[in-house]
Structures are given as C-alpha cells and as structure tokens.
Amino acid sequence: MLNAESLREIVVGKQKLEKAIPHPDLTVKSYEDGLRIWNHRDVKSFFNEKSMNWKPQRECSVFLPCSATKPYPISPSHKRGYLKALFPALDKIDIFVISEPMGVVPYYFSDEYPVKDYDYDPSRFFKGKEEEYCA
C-alpha cells in the first residue's frame, strides 16, 4: 500500500518499485479477453471489496489516467509527470486512477495484485474501431 510519503520517495528515487510482469489471466490479447477480464474473479473482488469500500481520506481528489507500465507510480507519465506535478500536495489529496478494467482505483492500492498485474491496451482494440464495435 502506498501513502504520500512512499510516493515522494518513489518520485525522488529513494524507494524502488519493480515493474510488474502481467499475469497471464489478466492480459488482454483479443477482444474476447477484453470482455473476459471485466468478469475475472480477482478484478471483481478488488472492485467490490476495495474500490467500492474506499473511504476518502481528504477533501480533495485527483483522478489520473491509467498507464501502460504497472505499477502506476513507476510509469514515466506518473513518476515524472503527474506525481511530480502533485508532489507539493500529496498530503492534501486523494489520488485515483481511472482504469480499464479495474474501474476507479485508489492510488493507495496501485502496488497490489491485481492492480499492478494487468495488461490492457484499449487503443489496441478499440481506438479507431468505434464503427466496427459500437454500431
């Protein structure tokens, strides 16, 4: 579990997180996988037991997009971008990631299974394919 202090240490390089190797059951390689992963027992369990039961810690929240690299804090866009920009406010905000397929993820859990172990690239399957799949 990651708190404001551990996020600061990740940003400045004092704490290291290892890049996760996607779990085979949580890797989307086809359209069918994209649908299946939403119903994976661990994904549903995480959503129902952790995301839906999260109690806000602060009055202000920031929502970030997902990242290709997991866990999120080691992704270049998060580590050198979002977290660096939010650095002065980390004690004052709750951070969430909007993720496919995890839903709304409290950043606090971003280094835990299954959040750090999925691989889902929606642009690979859906970007530019709206007419084909959304008709």
What this model shows, in words?
The protein has 135 residues and is an alpha+beta fold. It has one domain (4-12, 22-120). The chain is built from 6 helices and 3 strands, in the order αααβαββαα. The protein has a 3-stranded mixed beta sheet with strand order 1-2-3. Helix 1 crosses helix 4 (76-86). The relative contact order is 0.22.
In brief:
The protein is of the alpha+beta class. It has six helices and three strands; from the N terminus they run H-H-H-E-H-E-E-H-H. Helix 1 crosses helix 4 (76-86).
Instruction: Give helix and strand order, one letter per element, not per position.
Output: HHHEHEEHH
- Count of the separate structural domains: 1
Number of helices: 6
- What does the average pLDDT come to? 89
Structural class: alpha+beta
Largest sheet: 3 strands, mixed
Distance between the termini: 41 Å
Detail the poorly predicted runs: none
Strand content: 5-15%
Shape: globular
The strand line-up of the biggest sheet is 1-2-3
